[in-house]
Specification:
The protein has 468 residues and is of the alpha/beta class. The chain folds into two domains: 2-177 and 335-394, 3-Layer(aba) Sandwich (D-Maltodextrin-Binding Protein, domain 2), CATH 3.40.190; 181-332 and 399-462, 3-Layer(aba) Sandwich (D-Maltodextrin-Binding Protein, domain 2). Helix content is 41%, strand content 11%. The protein is built from 20 helices and 13 strands. The chain has a six-stranded mixed sheet. Strands 11-6-12 form a three-stranded antiparallel sheet. A two-stranded parallel ribbon has the order 7-10. The longest helix has 16 residues, at 2-17.
Amino acid sequence: MKKLVASALCVSMMAGMLVGCGDTATTETAPAADSTATEATETKTDDAAAPAAAGDVVLNVWAFTDEVPNMVQKYIDTHPDCGFTFESTIIATTDGAYQPALDQALAAGGADAPDIYAAESAFILKYSQGDAYQYAMPYEDLGIDVAAATKAADIAQYTIDIGTNPDGKLVGLGYQATGGAFIYRRSIAKDVWGSDDPAVVGEKIGAGSGSWDQFFAAAAELKAKGYGIVSGDGDIWHAVENSSDQGWIVDGKLTIDPKREAFLDLSKELKDNGYHNDTTDWTDAWYGDMKGEGAQGILGFFGPAWLINYVLAGNSGDTYGDWAVSVSPIGFFWGGTWILANKDTTKKDAVKQIIEWITLDCTEDGLQYMWANGTFNGEGGTKDCVGSGTVMAMSNGELEFLGGQDMFDIFVPANQYANGKNLTQYDEKINSLWREQVREYSAGNKTREQAIADFKQNVADNLDVVVE
């Protein structure tokens, strides 16, 4: 019944939102953008796209992977009368190449400027609320009824908050939902607590409590049986970061929220008690713990659905299928990609169609449904959590990796539990500087006071913010 109700609601919304694909927008000829804007970039028309016919609109799509361009191509393939084609500029975020090129292209404007561009969680605030927010067109200016559409699609509030500009206008939404949960080994839970049930494990680690107290009590029980609770301190960082009441920068000044400062103590407690294998995320040792190859077996990892699909599943080895998902003690999100429109685009109708189809269409023909059910590239693909709670209510999130558990039962509420109001456009850099000093402290190389002082100095040396 929930599937029928959700589907009916979304169909009624999308009937009013989607414009017929044959209604082609007109294009004005504008001065070409400065050629340096696309240096070190690869600009291409997707090979699968049909050549632009006379009168066709050609969208310029900018992204840091081929994921969004592939979505645009899918829309064109499934809507052959839409009347537009596209060119994509894909620049990897490696070495910080994407943002400077995008900034220059947006500032230069003209016919070569992006009509649609993507920004990931590490730097979305710059483009939705920060230094480059002025380039983004509010969704309502595309003709989207934002309040009604986001309500019908049941979009998690954190992703709306992040995509809302300083004027209170929505300028970006994501297609993924990246609320986090605790992803754990069933066999270890059974050995220590006699059950691998997500409710039992959740109770043990303090699911939904907003506190780390029960989690560390569980860590002590695990240690007594020869296990660690997480691989490294980085595994709890995103939950700590997103549970804070304030971001790193408040009124132009560096601010260390008490909950983020407490990460010093949480990291040291993990280290001093041997509750982890002291790995650093994204290293071979971290991946090894997913396979159960570390010094001690590790119960789990904190993360969203993409951590399961694109990291754990491929690195689990013989532990594949020995996993489940439980509610996290602390609400958080990690990652995601937001889709924005250029305020100066002359192709609003085509842009509107693409953005609605990717982020708000919750019918079975929309990107969200294909992404959630693993049918984007045909049957049997990777299922993922999506921005629309309505779509996930219509979908089957059972995964073999999770022993048949439906991950949506955990991740849908996790998305609502996440906080999107404590981010700044400087988070990527400041987080790195903070975590460096936390590890120095937990390793015993610095006092708590020296680690904090060195962190402040490093921020002052690297960023144009006030440090007191």
